[in-house]
Design a protein that fits this description.
By secondary structure, this protein is α/β, with parallel strands linked by helices. 32% of the residues lie in helices and 26% in strands. Helix 7 links the parallel strand 9 and strand 10. It is globular, with a radius of gyration of 18 Å.
């Protein structure tokens, strides 16, 4: 684990300080129009990574929300646990769970990026990640966390990206426990989820598919990152049929990437 600091000086544990600030800015945009987590609310942070959304929820509620951080990669979950202990030493409000959520209860093999764990998941391998980085750096102007590269012409940026990618984008397979969201509700005796955040690198629909019909009314708000138009359309249809109003916005922080943020609230 390494130590990093947010822009306000808050220390936290991470696997790689590069990009922590950009991810924190993205997390802050998940709270639609400034709406925050209140004391007494229940938060499910699905795909917690190092726990930035959980940290934001904890701070907004002044440590009085009940937070469940789901992270299936053991070494990454250890970082979430360290950040939770720093902020909630008595472990009363912030709970970490070494499991992911999906459409079935199973053991799944995930592609883990040890040096850039935010990319870890079922569907992105090292070669795809390197292609995505090359496409990102080939734009006329790139956004966070590589704004510094804008001083270089595109060919130089791409060469730098290949060097960075060779170091940061190595992967290894990791077997991980996956539960459905409905199974997690039963396992932890959770009666409601006021905030459901989902960012699981392309498997967001699987998490939504893991909600049983009679559990949908127990969920108040959802914020979900979606990576493709096909997934977006299906997610909107599923959420609207479950009784939510849906608002879709561009991801203004991670510029140049085809990401949408889906906000859903119960009618």
């Amino acid at each position: 684990m390494k130590r990093a600091r947010l822009r306000d000086g808050t220390p936290l544990w991470c696997d790689e300080p590069l990009g922590v600030g950009a991810v924190w800015d993205e997390i802050e945009s998940y709270f639609l129009d400034g709406e925050g987590v209140r004391a007494g609310e229940v938060v499910f942070d699905v795909g917690a990574n190092i726990g930035l959304f959980s940290l934001a929820a904890f701070r907004q509620s002044q440590g009085k929300a009940l937070i469940w951080s789901f992270e299936p990669i053991p070494s990454t979950c250890a970082i979430v646990e360290a950040n939770a202990r720093d902020n909630d030493p008595e472990e009363k409000q912030w709970h970490t769970v070494r499991a992911g959520l999906g459409k079935a209860n199973e053991i799944a093999v995930l592609n883990h990026f040890p040096r850039l764990s935010v990319l870890s998941g079922r569907f992105r391998g090292a070669e795809q990640a390197k292609r995505e980085m090359d496409e990102f750096l080939s734009q006329p102007r790139v956004g966070a966390p590589f704004e510094f590269a804008n001083v270089f012409p595109v060919p130089v940026r791409r060469a730098l990206g290949r060097g960075i990618g060779a170091f940061l984008l190595q992967t290894r397979p990791v077997a991980a426990q996956i539960w459905t969201l409905s199974s997690a509700l039963k396992k932890f005796n959770v009666q409601r989820v006021d905030w459901l955040k989902i960012d699981v690198e392309g498997a967001e629909l699987d998490v939504l598919r893991g909600v049983e019909e009679n559990d949908w009314p127990r969920i108040g708000r959802i914020v979900c990152e979606i990576e493709s138009t096909a997934m977006l359309n299906e997610a909107i249809s599923l959420l609207e049929s479950a009784g939510f109003t849906v608002d879709v916005r561009d991801n203004d922080i991670m510029q140049g990437q085809e990401l949408k943020i889906v906000f859903a609230r119960r009618l």
